[in-house]
Write a structure and sequence with these properties.
Elements (H helix, E strand, L loop, with lengths): L1 H34 L4 H21 L1
Amino acid sequence: MELVSEVMGDAIDDALEGDEEEEETEDLVNQVLDEIGIDINSERQITGLLKLNQQAMKTVE
């Protein structure tokens, strides 16, 4: 019974480690983007506005 408990505990620990690595990766990417002056959220907003503008221009034509 102890072996099953140990294996289950190890499996849960392994699954949770993946979340930490993903979070660390995201933090690192954001840090690099900040250092080179790229704000990914504002880039996405600008892209969205450009698409809306293009759609509006097509409607007007």
